[in-house]
Amino acid sequence: MLTKRIIPCLDVRAGKVTKGIAFKGNVDVGDPVEMARFYYESGADELVFYDITASNEGRDIMIDVVSSVAAEIFIPFSVGGGLRTLEDMRRVLLAGAEKVSIDSGAVRNPQIIAEGAHAFGSQCVVLSMQVKKVPKHEKIPSGYEIFIDGGRTPVGWDALAWSVRGVELGAGEIVVNSIDADGTKAGYELELTGAIADLVPVPVIASGGAGNPQHLRDVFVESSADAAIVASITHYGEFTIAGIKDYLKSHNVSMRDTW
């Protein structure tokens, strides 16, 4: 049985880890290098770093912070935010990341997925999607629409269709970021995550809404997610990575051991 993964997320703005609700009202919570080291030592399976304002501000990712984080951890490390070209991807990988996470840049230029997969391998290319529930209509038959630029801009694409296209282009993983659930601690968006997991043949990572270990159990068991991103529940010390894994193991979810 494949083990599930717990992936702490460091949303970084102006050099600080930040957290908000539904992509709004962000407050700073810590230093990304210190928090990365803490999560590595706490038994996180992977880590994801998002420069959350790079795309909206039209600037490059903070490569110095990426390098500093990569020097402190020895687990898979995914980086996203402001990646628009193959050279952007190359710089991030050379700075120490194992994977690149592309989101707004992939919507603006879907071919970047294929270019990245060809140059670095599909296992390096993660398609991250910002998704919001909307009324169903002809363009959005699933009722889940893709947004970009930190959840600010709707693009009129159906999330399920975009996930399929992204994999066809070469994405090796899909991250499903629910704007509605983000930071609420009310649980992951199970319907959306499950629908995408049923459609694509690559790992699906749930993001947004974790409030307690039960929520991770639900998304792993009920929505068949391969991994779950956590932020608020571990950033503020409410739960530990080890404690969440112990809970999941006790509920028959296969997890990697902490060390």
Q: How would you portray this structure in words?
A:
By secondary structure, the protein is of the alpha/beta class. Helices cover about 35% and strands about 25% of the residues. It has 11 helices and 12 strands. The protein has an 8-stranded parallel barrel with strand order 1-4-5-6-7-10-11-12, surrounded by 6 helices. The two termini are about 20 Å apart. The model has no long low-confidence stretch (mean pLDDT about 90).
Describe what is shown at a glance.
The protein is α/β, with parallel strands linked by helices and 259 residues long. It has 11 helices and 12 strands. Helix 9 crosses helix 11.
In the predicted model, the low-confidence regions spanning at least 5 consecutive residues are none
Tally of individual helices: 11
- β-strand number: 12
Strand order of the largest sheet: 1-4-5-6-7-10-11-12
Mean pLDDT: 90
Distance between the termini: 20 Å
Biggest sheet overview: 8 strands, parallel, barrel
What's the overall geometry? Answer: globular
Helix-strand sequence: EEEHEHHEHEHHEEEHEHEHEHH
Determine the fraction of residues in helical runs and give it as a percent range. 25-40%
Query: What's the alpha carbon Rg, rounded to whole Å?
Result: 17 Å
Strand content: 25-35%
| Secondary-structure content class | alpha/beta
